[in-house]
Fold each of these.
Amino acid sequence: VCFIPGGLDCSISFISHVLGKVCVQGRQKEILSALVPRLTDLTKSDCIWQRMCWRLVECVPERWMEPVLLGFVQRAPGADALSRLLGNLVVKNKKAQFVVTQKMLLLQYSHTTAVLQNLLGYLSLDSLRRPFLIKVLQELLETWGSSSAVKHSPPEQQQYISKAILICLSHLKEPEMESCRQELLTSMMEGVKCHLDSNLPQIRRLGMIVAESISSKINTDGPVLKFQYEEDDETRELKSFLMQTSPSSAVPGLPDDDRNEEADAALPLVLKSDKNPQTAAPLMPDEESDAELDSDDDLVPYDMSEDKELKAKAPLYIRDCIDVLTGCEDVDKWEATVKALESLIRKNPAATREVSVELAKILLHLEEKTCIEGFVELRQRAQVAVLTTDPIPVAKYLTSQFYSLNYSLRQRVDVLDVLILAAQELSSPKSYGKTKQFGAPKPCIQLLPGSDSSKDWRRIVDERIKSKTRRFATGQSQVEIASSPNEFNSVAGHFFFPLIQHFDRPLTTFDLLGEDHFVLGRLVHTLAILMYLAINTVAVTAMGKVLLEFVWALRFHTDSYVRQGLLSCVSSLLHSVPTEHLLEDMTEELLETLSWLGVVVEKDPDGDCRRLALQNLLLMENLKKKLKTVPS
Amino acid sequence: MALPPPDPQFVLRGAGAAVHTLHFSCRGESDVPVLFSGSENGFINVWNLKTHRVDTTLDGHGRKSVYCVETMGGKDRLLSQGRDQRVCLWDLAEGRTAVMDSVCTENVGFCRCSLLKVAQGRWLMAMAAKALEEVQVLELPSKTSVCTLKPEVGAKLGMPMCLKLWQLNCSSQPLLLAGYEDGSVILWNVTMGKALSQLVCHQEPVMSLDFDSEKAKGISGSSEKVLSIWSLNEQQNLQVCKTHRLVNTGISDITIRPDKKILATAGWDHRIRIFGWKKMKPLAVLNYHTATVHCVSFSDHKTPGERLLAAGSGDHRISIWSIYAHT
């Protein structure tokens, strides 16, 4: 394609038409992959070519503007190249403005980071276009901060919007920052609230990072917002967007990112008075010269091998432990007791059974008196030990406390975690202490205190799918595990039914269906695990029926974490309840669930929910197939 | 093959409460060597070191713990400091047990006072004052205030924890070393009332310190695991020379033997540690007590071979050791 310079406007508009038509018909890739690089080179230094290119794009009819523009933005090698190619198109053309500032940012979210950088860099490079940048930032922040958007939009879209916000922030200059400082602050406050309210850790983290970035931009001196979260590649990538300066543009006085970084770092220490204490600067004494005059040589040291660290002794009996934990003032002894408690409980089951409920009560209310490493884990392991030693009374106590007044969220979630760990221990073959089982047919559920269970669910459901479709060969490919009676059998019902009983009865401090949806989510996941572990127990069918009703009642809950839990419940159900019982007792409910799953697969905004629903449908298909193969 | 650590030469029992302070008085030729001990029940016991029994008991602090006893020139004049906010001066000559005079300190802390003889019949006493960070220096027996040592505003030193008055020789100016709650040690010039140098030795409060004026070197112990050894250079500046790491945390008392050859530390881990002073070489760990050792003190016997080390502990006993006596 070769242009002859000199008043060829008409032919250019013809070219624009062709270009537009080709693009809208889907041949965008072919034509633009040839056109754009050529144009980029040509427009690098030649103004005439630049103007021609602008005219070319401007003349594309409105109805075909979008694909052309999209193609250009995607193919341009950088924001300045895009700027040369498009000129002030967004200012002149309404459709282009709409596509660039609204559609690509707010309505679509499939574009790559490079595209975002191009787009926003393009907006920031010219003073005529900068107002759009500010407008875009405001709209992005509005979306970011709206609680309904946070709840209902997919995580991928939220991540896209967060990235766009960070890139916009990196392009903002000081005077612009001043003018919209107040708005930034208000939107940040609202936005961070909705983000932290979410159950999904990814959303929370996004909210934290964006809030920190905004705060560092608007408060360049003075303390900035700093959250605690785990750093990983994703967070580092997001933070890197904030730190870039726009490439090679002639705009002076860019926001000083280094200055911001220092303000981000540790708060300035308050210096001491001018009396200036000299901090310890150790000088090595000149030892060689003293050697001659050393009259210490005639002082012969004694044997000091007995000089070891002092350790407080832990009590040896369970009742002594109870005394120490309830009333002892000696913190060393308290620490030693907490550390030794689990093994004592396991070694003395008979003695523990006598005081099990009391011990469970003490442990549930135990708070950290001194700073011990791993206190939470120690307490949890002791609780699990008590629960497995004397399941029925302790389970009764714990489940009743779950629904009682005046417990903190942490304590209620603790109760759930302990029930799960104990159930797992009881239902697996007798190998206490080894939670990793070699070649186990059941996947292990590793629950660490406070960890996010949603990753585990993915793994578990995957394994379930695998296990359902596996054909066992006659050869022994797995290690033979010693068999022992399933202790969970007799107590499964005691763990399960009390938990599910009162979920719709709100108390003054605890409303599962209202504010405390975090606990509801955890409760649902707990029920799913208990159901899963109850395979081969007598009560499993009754549990299944109750669980299906529970799922049905909550199926339209707005929180995606809860919905994921409900779908896991259905998976566990299909896994654990024997097929015959499923079909005999729960046919109607199953059919209803089937139709609900269909709806979820199509319409649920959350990707994980859709995937889980799909897996459930697959499981149900497998069930049907299995039935057909078995002669009834 | 190193010898096992020695046992105590003898143990004084009968104090009846935790022993917080000890002081020997063994210089008199015709007198019986004597050990003064102050206990938590407010009594000061005068132990006869020949019979190992209590000769006299002094009750002058209203049953509040006595945490410092010092003699003022011979065993007839005793100074004691207690938690009843008083410093008492006793006259013990001829079997009397009377409180001659007392100074009201108005201080509710635990900082032991420090005595220095500046002239015949005149002493300087440094003690923690009523205001939080201040140290007051009084002249005894006239009880006139020489100066009040106030740190700068905003210095945030906390309470003074331990004090040591010293002077290089009889004619030079008296100086004061004070260890504070924030872990720093300050050298004060008493006559001018000015601080000469400040050194941050510890992260935790300085529990105790002692100073060797001949070598211009001092040592301080804290509630952490580190002993800090520092020195004073010609410009009267303090610098840290080295630190020594202990096995267990907490030191309540440090004292250097008068011949400057060894030093003893009293630990919260119930052990007494002996170090060589020259190079901080660990020499012995004396393990006898079953509770925190609150104080250690060396005797002032004229004959080196008779020298003793006493340690008072929370288990109500005072252990007496003869260690490195013949070097």
Amino acid sequence: MVHTSLDVVDEKISAMGKALVDQRELYLGLLYPTEDYKVYGYVTNSKVKFVMVVDSSNTALRDNEIRSMFRKLHNSYTDVMCNPFYNPGDRIHSRAFDSMVTSMMIQVC
Amino acid sequence: MEAAAGGGCGSGPPLLLSEGEQQCYSELFARCVGAAGGGPGSGPPEAARTVPGTVTAAAGPVADLFRASQLPAETLHQITELCGAKRVGYFGPTQFYIALKLIAAAQSGLPVRIESIKCELPLPRFMMSKTDAEIRFGNPAELHGTKVQIPYLITEKNTFKRMDDEDKQQETQSPTMSPLASPPSSPPHYQRVPLSHGYSKLRSSTEQMHPAPYEARQPLVQPEGPSSGAPGAKPPRHKASLIRSFSVEREPHDNSSNYPDEPWRITEEQREYYVNQFRSLQPDPSSFISGSVAKNFFTKSKLSIPELSYIWELSDADCDGALTLPEFCAAFHLIVARKNGYPLPEGLPPTLQPEYLQAAFPKPKRECTLFDSYSESMPANQQPRDLNRMEKLSIKDTADFPVPTQDVTSDDKQEQNKTRLALKSTADEALPKDMSEDPATSKDSNSLKARPRSRSYSSTSIEEAMKRGEDPPTPPPRPQKTHSRASSLDLNKVFQPSVPATKSGLLPPPPALPPRPCPSQISHHNVNSERSAHPKPPTQLPNYGDFRLQKQSEQVSEAEIHPQLNRAPSQVAESSPTKKDIPHSQPPSKPIRRKFRPENSATESQEPPSTVGGPVSAASGKPHAAVQKQSSKQKKAIQTAIRKNKEANAVLARLNSELQQQLKEVHQERIALENQLEQLRPVTVL
């Protein structure tokens, strides 16, 4: 599921050649017939991609909320990256990061 | 059931305490009271009933105890209010017991209400230092010492589990590392051995002088602990015990109140140490250490990467990827604590936060001697209890740090000297400031006793290090028989470049001018000496000196010299060594006065590789003649000759090492061949 969405993200990135600075991509297109969920993509300047999968049952998610969530995610991610012991690509163990993410998710749900 | 106790406290609700709880609470109360300055033992509740408030626990230890329960601050506030302490203004036994009950309730997940304490509750759990009394905590069912050790370990595990998920790998170790009880005593001891190795590398690579102050801290810290704890001050026993393994010693020592958040306070000595480590990484104390530098440094502590990552996350408050001095101290402190077995906190303790650290330990600016400042700061020494743990931490550290002092190389010793001087200055700067900020405690007498001892410790070790450090640099000051007049100049010129190479703080800074002509001269003479793999006239011989290091540094700076150097050693290496023994007589550490011998041997050793020397001799003849002509320039001549000798020495030393390597290789081949031969022999025989 996430991998297919990654493919779509790559397509989008390669498509938007000039607008690489655009940080936000919202696309609600990945609605499979059996699994109704929405996938949001977000790309940072360093080509790090955040993919958010949301149940469609949650109707109250507005565009702005998604964007703010991504922004917070991005900020937390940069904080994690500041840690010199963190190897890019490893699973993020940062407690602050986790707490932020969970709080965000709780807030949404 | 002590229903009477409940009935006695008129201000609070009826308090039902089981026997076990009663016992625990009275002990806790006694400790809090005792820690405050000596109160009666376990104040029986009857006394409380009759005269409420006669026995009060001081707010300090009580607050520490409550913090030890690991409950959030708001909960503790609530509890304090509910138990009535705020109302009556003190922590009497009833209030204390109620508070303990509320803590137990909170830890069990119940809301902090008076009603919740009416039911049967487990004992409150306190993350405290591991004493016999504490063993009884954490297990509602069992209060016996031996049995409770296991449940305590379980609670230790629980507390550990509350930490990072990545610390799971540490969990199995954590019960062993918990400084509790006899069973884990050997594992922590074992654990500390590799820790000491890890730190030995750390220390030896950075500053070796710190073991000395740490040794100083060791006796220092010990008496401060019991003095702050008040009851049963046992300085001598603590000193002896603390030097030994971890867990066993901590129990008796920790009878005085030690609370888990106290290890997060940084003592002065530790602070100095951290500051000096910071300086070793980043000369400017007001600047910060970059992430990669800090990473390399902390990686030497041999903690796992996730733990280091977590520590970084805690300590880098502004998440900028760099550590300022307070951040660095906090990180270092956390690492030290972790290595000594303390579980990492959930969040940065208040005493480790950068603002606190900056306020408590302003950056030092002044300078005085290390030990004088110790005596000054004695009466003004720090916080009461925090030293207990910190003492242990620093003691463990000191136990680790002295180990690597023996593994010092000459370069490190020189670094030590320099850093020791730096250490002195920073330590002194920090200490007087601490004096002004921290109130004097009753530890003065103990600390006074401790300081002189610490001085002896540190002074001896520093002296040793000094001596060791002095060995390499001593050659220059020794008078040279043939160049008494020019010796001083030579030395200055010689050692100016060598100072940056060796980082020796003992050598006086040479004047700026002389070295400038040196490189040009040296380059000139390097050229000559490179070609001069040949016997030189006797007048040139006396100028050989042990300036290998200098020569190397000069050579690095001189590009033209480099290819020549490479040429010469390679050429020399190619020729079969006929006189390996001769280079042996020119060890790098030999002082200048051995010039004559190495000179002679150098000339002799240069004879075999004279294949290169042939065409060079003609060239070298020219400068010799030029030098000899002018008597007024004799000094220069001597100096240049000295440099030539140095360079030749360096070349020969390299040759020596290369030849030795070849020799080793040949030996190994020979051994291999012999082995093969032996293997083949029985085959043929059969």
